[in-house]
User: Fold this.
Amino acid sequence: MNFASIAFFAFFITVYGLYWALSRPWQNRLLLVASYIFYGAWDWKFLGLIGLSTILDFFLGKQMYAASDPKRRKSLLLVSLIINLGMLGVFKYFNFFAGSLVSLLTPLGLQPGWPLLNIVLPVGISFYTFQTLSYTIDIYRRKLAPTDKLEDFALFVSFFPQLVAGPIERASHFLPQLMSSRRLTFEQMSRGSFLILLGLFKKVAIADGLAQSVNAIYNVSAAGTVGTLDIILATYLFAIQVYCDFSGYSDIARGLAKLLGFDLMVNFDTPYFAVNPSDFWRRWHISLSTWLRDYLYIPLGGNRKDERTTYRNLILTMALGGLWHGAAWNFVYWGLYQGGILCVHRWVAGAKPSIRPAVTLTDKIRRACMIVGFFQITCYGWLLFRASSWSQIVAFSDRLFFHPTWSTPTIPTPSLAALAGIVLVLVVDLAHYLSGTSVFYRIWPIYRRAALYAALLVVLLMGLSNTGNTFIYFQF
Amino acid sequence: MQFLNDSPQPQSSLAAQAATPSTDRAQENSQGLRSQTSTENPFGKKRPTPWGSLVKLSLWMLFWLTLVDICINWLFAYPDVLDQYPSSLDRYFDYGRSIEGKVSRMVNNTVDSSDPIIAAGWIDPQSWRSLPSVPKDDNDLLLAYYGMSFAEDISLALGELDDDITLRGIGGPSAPPNHSYAAYMADEAGRNADVALIGVLTSSVKRMRSLSGMSWSYEHPAPYSYPYYQLNSSGNLVAVEPVISSASEFVSEFNRKGPQWQRFLAQMTQYDVAFDAVVFNESWVDNSALLRLIRRGWANRVRQRSDYGLYDAVTGFNAEAVEIKTLKVMLSDFVATARDNDQLPIILLISDSGYGDSLYKVLSPHLQSLDTLSLSTHELVPSDNPANFIDDGHFIPAANYKVATALQEMIADTDVANE
Assistant:
């Protein structure tokens, strides 16, 4: 059930109407049933996996908290890690690793005959696995007390607005909200509605409107025939597409949650205004980057040891972060690239780089140049992310850096809605960036706010004729 | 790397911000945009109550939306005069007009005084009398082609490459195989042709469960009709003939909106999966630019819903779909009929942009079993390369010549060319 569909609209309206007519325990039960219906709409068989993960971590969490023996606590954590990561490994990575190993061994004359699994990747498994892992790890670290109510925990794992593509919530942030009574304020309704409008606008008008142009270049089977300008344009457009697709989803998820009386964490904070890789990861997919920091980078040693270990930790964290996105080598390359530029930035800027406020005109110009410059570096990363094969990465990189051909671009022009939407999203993000808050419009005069909403709505209506695509991050 | 900064030393403000889940509430508080009373703002002015603000906001939004609607209608007004060509933006904001609304602008009192699209594509042998039915020269070949603009462009390129080929072409805008097959069967004069070529456009296979170029080509309706084919229990084709079958009949019935027109609409409702009353019927919605945008979105959803079960961008065509089964029988009939008439049948599969080799994949076993000449354009002109297409989606001229050359060589290797 796609957020940008009539079926979801009908589903949400029904749930919403019932939700506010019920008292809190029944509200949670309703949301749990609705979440399972929402998830089961993809494939009811996936419900078994999410159910297993929920029950397992609920009871492991309770036992872990009650146990005083560190060895027992550790072994319980290991059980949680093995089973959760095991499910992720089997369903998401088995074919990838098995296929890669076959490719590696075949040139050596070895032909392993293990079978590939004929399985479909359960939607959102990477998101809810990380969410449940944070719960058990936090209990193990004594940072969190487990919940006593299975239904609250089950809802924490499966809450439908963020179930399939995040934000990856932390139990310490979200469980208390589930356990307390809630009331709908005017502010929440207003902000929630705005976020839903903004998210739909980003997804329907921009991301879907750019997909055809990007696919036209990245799906060419003979990558060597694509011209330099086509690669540049398609990569810029993909940078916008993936941002609008993913942040659009997050906006809708947060907006829906607000209408239900919850606050989900902010997942994007004007990422393309980043001036360096460190800044970028504070702005892009914040729920994942903080998860990686807390549960992978820091346990690896973080930057507490020597520089070489810090670099290793950075590379390893980002490579695994890349692999989290999908079972394909291009995601690993993208992760390695991100790790690499973080290392280079740390090496150049020092251990504690800081971003000074731009006060003078010279500072502001320098900052603008840094933003534009770093965007180019980000975009090359998106080329790695979007590429369909290693040979395409090589061919496109060769065309960009070593053998450019400046023929007339053949990339199809994006839809008018997407072009108008890009301008509008730039205005919105610029206002957000300059004001330092995502609710910048609240201090605007009411006629100007209304003009912004109307503009978003008009471009969204224009985008309704774009071919609908599923959200890119559903595959992760 | 500050985003992963785990140093025991005090973190920078940005790192600290990332360390705790950030929500709107936190952002609002940090900006002083929220206040306890909620009727005051940080700038000291009294604000109206929330519900008062909502009413004001709604009225302002209504004002802006109305203004936008009026401006679009004024700036991008679709020209009323037939010979005045609309700009691309005029067309863009008019795509959501109802089919009936669009057609009524093109129809006049007679076919001749109407837009040329009204006369295009009808399966009406009377209108084919001016087409060549014998070769230019006794030694020449007469090639009759049935299809759409793609088939026509390739055939014309073939005619340019080979002076000894005389062309006889019958087609309709984006015509589905129903149309091409029915046109071939109805073309008695075309039986004299040495070669009969049928073009199957990949994107048009989806139109097989329709009766007219109006329902599927929502944005550019072409009113021509064609039979709807079903398979009976013995696997033979059964045609549902359209109630209106010629341009003159269409113009007359459309203007009159009499019982015949109602029967045609009823027939479309029954058989045409892409027919939708909201999309088709002229109404007051046509007057609002923004409502037209909504209808255009709705029309796209209707079209996508109609595709369901036949084609998927990842898996391609469903071999079990009724359209594919019907298409196979149509192609078999076409080959058998052509052979019965001593013609050389050629099946040309045309892969338009974005469809890859999906049609070839689903039909190639059947084509092999027919043991007939066939060519799929994807082998010569990959449809995943945008360089092979012009802006309107047709092949570039070089691609047409490439396919035509392959056809020329194919024909040259047969007895027909050597007789």
Summary: Residues 121-244+311-417 of chain B form a domain with the Rossmann fold fold (CATH 3.40.50.1110). The longest strand of chain B covers residues 141-147. Chain B touches chain A through 63 residues (CB under 8 Å).
